[in-house]
From TrEMBL:
Protein name: UDP-glucose 6-dehydrogenase
Enzyme class per UniProt: oxidoreductase
Any Pfam family: UDPG_MGDP_dh_N
InterPro entries xrefs: 6-PGluconate_DH-like_C_sf (IPR008927), NAD(P)-bd_dom_sf (IPR036291), UDP-Glc/GDP-Man (IPR017476), UDP-Glc/GDP-Man_DH_C (IPR014027), UDP-Glc/GDP-Man_DH_C_sf (IPR036220), UDP-Glc/GDP-Man_DH_dimer (IPR014026), UDP-Glc/GDP-Man_DH_N (IPR001732), UDPglc_DH_bac (IPR028357)
UniProt keyword terms in alphabetical order: NAD, Oxidoreductase
EC number(s) given by UniProt: 1.1.1.22
Source organism: Meiothermus luteus
Length: 471
């Protein structure tokens, strides 16, 4: 394999994972970030985010990795430069492109003499490839006072990793999508990803290769199609989850069980069993932001996108439904103490962006409840990022349960299955558990003395449960 020189701009979830993965594959990678605190941690071999396997892979790839805040130390030599900075939502739903703009300018000002592929890995609106091209060109010409002639080409290479399994998803992707107009750019990126495409690298022990893993398909497309693939994929997954939540809400009314329904439809190969887990609904840094961006793009072109819009409405309404479940059980929320199990938007991450737990906490607080929360890894992030939110944080789930009126499981951390549930029930003022992810063993919880309320499980099931005396 030919080792290539790579620069990655932005060392967040995507940039760092990409940089570390490419370094592990044997490329020489320089990661650039503007955040000195992140760089200080990275230089000590520490990951600034909680992501299983990331620090281990950083250690294995150490010899091929450098970290800097200087574009000049990364870009001039690079054959490939990734833009992996954030694209958060603006109030109108469209993405804030200020970081992409700054990165593109920084790249243009530091382009070297060799041919370089500038790769958009950030999730960016359709047409951003052309826009980035013009920014890089303008910055180059402004800096050097001469025309830019074929020094670079822009490609789109959307990222599909999931937080919590970012290393696994980067080493063993379902597909790699590359959009480019210039065949030279395609060739460079084919060579860059060749070890991944052919799966010719040794699998790290902590991230074993899936059984029956074959070559990874490389999808080549034009720029606009590659950009649209990313938004369409996230929108489709969001629709799938909102769809099952809508059916779950009906299942509750008609006395059906959503887990049976999901399995029954999912085993149809055309539908598939994955992403049919009903519950609190989706959150995280991408689905909310990217569905909003897709709708904003539609508006720009005079096109309504009612399916994507409905997926969002169902999703955000689902959070309110959890509060309604608690209210139905407790009658009055004012003055009650509610313990949230899980704050992160999904397990195995400390990311709180658009986390359903925070939204639910705010709604409960508005109704006068006292909110407590436990999370195995996200408490520090919560304290740091939301200092004004009146939530009491607990390191110990048993202490969280002490004298609480109800628990609401929001994030399906595996350790919650192993809690001492009889002791939790004993500690509570009333042993009520709303399982917002249908994650716990209902029978075991009933045996432990809980009133158990799931999602998408009809009244028939609920009536099997002994009502708990007011106390
Ligand atoms: N998080 C995910 O799971 C995920 C998955 C796929 C795609 N994406 C997309 O990838 C992009 C990055 O997302 P993320 O979650 O990694 O973001 P992030 O916020 O975790 O990281 C962005 C990083 O870029 C740095 N940065 C900002 N401006 C910079 C500049 N001018 N020069 C250098 N560094 C700069 C920030 O300091 C930060 O460390 C977004 O467009 C997102 O939609 C994210
Ligand atoms: O059946 C399911 C599956 C997921 N979720 C929720 O959906 C959200 C998103 O989960 P997941 O997709 O696993 O995590 P992300 O890290 O947000 O990854 C999504 O967003 C990334 C950013 O664009 C993409 O790269 C990934 O492909 C895409 O899965 C979380 O709140 C989950 O709890 C459900 O409620 N039910």
């Amino acid at each position: 394999m030919k080792s290539m020189k790579v620069a990655v701009i932005g060392t967040g979830y995507v940039g760092l994972t990409t940089g570390v993965t490419l370094a592990y594959l044997g490329h020489q990678v320089t990661c650039v970030d503007v955040d000195p605190a992140k760089l200080a941690l990275l230089r000590q071999g520490k990951a600034p985010i909680y992501e299983p396997g990331l620090e281990e892979l950083m250690e294995l790839a150490r010899a091929n990795l450098r970290y800097t805040d200087q574009y000049a130390e990364a870009v001039p030599e690079a054959e490939v430069v990734f833009i992996a900075v954030g694209t958060p939502s603006l109030p109108d739903g469209s993405p804030d492109l200020q970081y992409v703009r700054a990165a593109a300018r920084g790249i243009g000002e530091h382009l070297g003499n060799g041919f370089c592929v500038v790769v958009n890995k950030s999730t960016v609106p359709i047409g951003s490839g052309n826009w980035v091209e013009s920014l890089v060109r303008e910055a180059y010409e402004g800096r050097y006072g001469r025309k830019c002639r074929g020094q670079f080409a822009v490609a789109s290479n959307p990222e599909f990793l999931r937080e919590g399994s970012a290393i696994h998803d980067s080493l063993y992707p379902d597909r790699i999508v590359v959009g480019a107009e210039d065949p030279k750019a395609l060739e460079v990126l084919y060579n860059l990803y060749r070890p991944l495409i052919e799966q010719s690298f040794p699998a790290p022990t902590f991230a074993p290769r899936p059984e029956r893993m074959e070559a990874v398909p490389l999808i080549t497309a034009d720029l606009a199609s590659a950009e649209l693939i990313k938004y369409a994929a996230n929108a489709f997954l969001s629709v799938k989850i909102s769809f099952i939540n809508e059916i779950a809400n009906l299942a509750e009314r008609v006395g059906a069980d959503i887990s049976q329904v999901a399995r029954g439809i999912g085993l149809d190969n055309r539908i598939g069993t994955r992403f049919l887990q009903a519950g609190v609904g989706w959150g995280g840094s991408c689905f909310g932001k990217d569905t909003a961006a897709l709708i904003a793009t539609g508006q720009e072109y005079g096109l309504a996108m009612p399916i994507v819009q409905a997926a969002r409405e169902v999703n955000y309404r689902q959070r309110e439904r959890m509060v309604e479940k608690l209210q139905r059980e407790l009658k009055i929320l004012k003055g009650r103490t509610i313990g949230l199990l899980g704050l992160a938007f999904k397990p195995n991450t400390d990311d709180l962006r658009d986390a359903p737990a925070l939204d639910i906490a705010r709604r409960l607080i508005e109704r006068g409840a006292w909110v407590r929360a436990h999370d195995p890894v996200a408490l520090d992030n919560a304290r740091r990022s939301y200092p004004d939110l009146p939530i009491t944080y607990y390191e110990d789930p048993l202490a969280l349960a002490e004298e609480a009126d109800a628990l609401l499981l929001v994030t399906e951390w595996s350790q919650y299955r192993k809690l001492d549930w009889p002791a939790m029930a004993q500690a509570m003022r009333r042993p009520l558990l709303v399982d917002g992810r249908n994650f716990l063993d209902r029978r075991a919880l009933l045996q432990a003395g809980f009133r158990y309320v799931g999602v998408g499980v009809g009244e028939q099931e609920a009536s099997e449960v002994q009502p708990v005396a007011e106390g």
